[in-house]
TrEMBL record:
This is Cytochrome P450. Its main location: membrane. It is found in: Membrane. It comes from the Eukaryota. Pfam families: p450. Belongs to the cytochrome P450 family. One of its GO terms (molecular function) is heme binding. Its cofactor is heme. Keywords: Heme, Iron, Membrane, Metal-binding, Monooxygenase, Oxidoreductase, Transmembrane, Transmembrane helix. The chain crosses the membrane at residues 15-37. Pathway: Secondary metabolite biosynthesis; terpenoid biosynthesis. InterPro entries: Cyt_P450, Cyt_P450_E_grp-I, Cyt_P450_sf, Cytochrome_P450_monoxygenase.
């Protein structure tokens, strides 16, 4: 027999393309059938945890979650299945949520190091909001938080309160002027309140974080405001979905921050699918460039204005001063770099602007639909405003009904309705063995409106309930809008006093009503960050949603007849 006619022994033939394709395909099919169909149904340790039927094998409950109003599916599931619920993510990935204070305490506070924010969430947050408190964990986070805490001390907030008033007065004047220009001024005017709340809170946060006057209330073309606006527009559904898919590529988040990427962004933008990526790179570059310039001028300023009582109280100035003090004491100290400092301030800008604007818009909406609560608030704030249209921190804090209104609004319609954590080790939570790698949803809106705590009217807006709290109320876990623990919102006190200062001026000057009869408002599922880990691949999924009003919240605003002009 010639060598060419030897029978095939089989070893070489395994590497033929069609056999390789069969093996790979077979393995993929096995993985698919096992991971997506069999595992969650028959093998998962979570298979007996109550929850809705497993749903679509490919998408799980993803579509239900993103198509409905934020956190409403979770609320319905909690009503049907109780305080521990299993849901399905994409491709058979299981998710859990817990409502009991003990479980939340374990995940968010006691064992917080074992339940960090998922990595992809941190990557995207880092890109958009800077690598700072939102992205670090463990010792790095502890150190950073320690460095940032003085900027959010009550003492500093008291000093900052005055910075709110220029933008607030600007807003009041604009609204008065526009109402006056109407054909029938007495009938008032419809304002897109979310848009105006966005402007006033951007002006305030830029002033308090950077000591920088954007004045986007009067100047919508301000460079920082325009760049920020562009960045926010990218957070809407289709744009975000594209961005998440692009940013999920390995190295994409770092690459998009690079000078090379900025210079060549127009090339990338030529691809239709990449246009939002080009805008992202562009707006981030511009925001960072402005921030660096501000830092540079502040660092130069320090040499001439070192005295704490006369110097600026904005967060960046505080950080620059703290760094200088550290370096003066020990020139070899490991001080924060310029890039790190810019990142911290950007974090505050990103985390503090839209959230506060959303909280204010929902409060005005709820008051517009509850004329009696609005009247009572006006009765409380008007004498304060007439005595001093710039009330200080303590005066604002002492207003009881205002406190009830703000607490109740943030409870019923929390600006951040949910967030996520990842179990980094297998551990029991509330009697459930949670496997390592499970994504845990923290459904803030469900926790805030849990009937077991708040009673049958838990989902309704009744500010008076804060005057007589229910017996099951837990001060840490029953109103979870800022969560708690080491990752709890560092800007909580600032956000509340800012909201209150804006409300005092608005309610003392104007009456708010729905824009048209039968108006219904929907919190959009405006996904701020989105992704889920599935083995080594990322899939779009819900991470942190800011529940902003879908339609910019039109409200009819009329002037309040005033006895004493202010
Ligand atoms: C009504 C307004 C606000 C609401 C409802 C809110 C809510 C939240 C929530 C729920 C978290 C936790 C997110 C998570 O762990 O996944 C958080 C974290 C954070 N917030 Fe706020 N926030 C508001 C305003 C602000 C303001 C004004 C600032 C700063 C100026 C701010 C800065 C931050 C920062 C830096 C974090 C990360 C904290 C950490 O991980 O150490 N927030 N916020």
């Amino acid at each position: 027999m010639s060598p060419t006619s030897l029978p095939d022994t089989g070893t070489g033939s395994l590497f033929q393309p069609h056999i390789i394709a069969c093996i790979v395909g077979g393995y993929a099919a096995y993985l698919f059938v096992y991971r997506v169909i069999l595992y969650p149904r028959f093998f998962s340790p979570l298979r007996n945890v109550p929850g809705p039927p497993l749903g679509n094998p490919l998408l799980g409950h993803y579509l239900t979650i993103v198509q409905e109003e934020s956190c409403i599916p979770h609320r319905n599931w909690a009503k049907a299945y109780g305080p521990v619920v299993r849901m399905m993510g994409i491709l058979g990935k299981e998710r859990l949520f817990f409502l009991s204070p003990d479980a939340l305490q374990q995940i968010i506070a006691k064992d917080w190091l074992e339940y960090p924010r998922p990595q992809f969430m941190r990557d995207v947050l880092g890109l958009v909001a800077g690598y700072g408190l939102l992205t670090t964990t463990g010792d790095d986070h502890k150190q950073l938080r320690k460095a940032m805490n003085p900027a959010f001390s009550v003492q500093n907030l008291m000093a900052q309160t005055d910075m709110y008033y220029e933008p607030i007065e600007g807003l009041v004047e604009i609204m008065k002027t526009e109402i006056k220009a109407e054909a029938i001024p007495e009938a008032g005017k419809v304002f897109a309140m979310y848009e105006w709340m966005g402007k006033v809170t951007l002006d305030i946060i830029c002033e308090t974080a950077f000591g920088y006057k954007t004045d986007c209330l009067h100047n919508p073309h301000n460079e920082l405001a325009v760049a920020f606006e562009q960045l926010l527009q990218l957070q809407s559904g289709p744009n975000l979905a594209k961005l998440v898919a692009i940013l999920a590529l390995p190295g994409a988040t770092n690459f998009s921050r690079s000078e090379f990427m900025y210079r060549h962004r127009w090339v990338v933008g030529k691809l239709p699918v990449m246009s939002s990526f080009e805008k992202l790179v562009d707006s981030l570059y511009r925001i960072r460039a402005i921030s660096r310039e501000m830092l540079r001028s502040k660092t130069a300023d320090l040499s001439v204005a070192p005295d704490d009582t006369t110097t600026k109280k904005d967060i960046m100035s505080l950080l620059v001063r703290a760094r200088k003090a550290d370096l003066d004491a020990d020139p070899t100290a490991d001080a924060m770099s310029d890039t790190a400092m810019v990142d911290q301030v950007l974090t505050f800008l990103a985390a503090g602007h839209e959230t506060t604007a959303t909280g204010l818009s929902w409060t005005l909406w709820l008051l517009a639909n509850d004329p009696e609560s609005q009247r009572r608030l006006r009765e409380e704030v008007t004498p304060i405003y007439e005595t001093n249209p710039r009330p200080d921190y303590r005066t604002i804090k002492s207003l009881t009904w205002l406190d009830c209104v703000v607490n109740e609004s943030l409870r019923v319609l929390p600006p951040v309705p949910l967030t996520l954590r990842l179990a980094s080790k297998t551990e029991y939570v509330d009697g459930v063995l949670v496997p390592e790698g499970t994504v845990i949803t923290i459904p803030i809106r469900v926790i805030n409106t849990w009937k077991e705590v708040w009673g049958e009217d838990a989902e309704e807006f009744h500010p008076a309930r804060w005057l007589n709290l229910p017996p099951a109320y837990n001060p840490t876990f029953s109103q979870f809008s800022f969560i708690t623990g080491p990752h709890g919102c560092i800007g909580k006190t600032m956000a509340i006093s800012e909201m209150k200062a804006v409300l005092v001026a608005l309610i003392a000057n104007f009456e708010f009503a729905p824009a048209y009869p039968g108006q219904v408002a929907h919190p959009a599922t405006a996904i701020t960050m989105s992704a889920d880990f599935c083995s080594s691949t990322c899939f779009p999924n819900l991470l942190v949603a800011v529940a902003e009003p879908e339609d910019n919240m039109p409200l009819r605003v009329t002037r309040v007849a005033r006895k004493t002009p202010v």
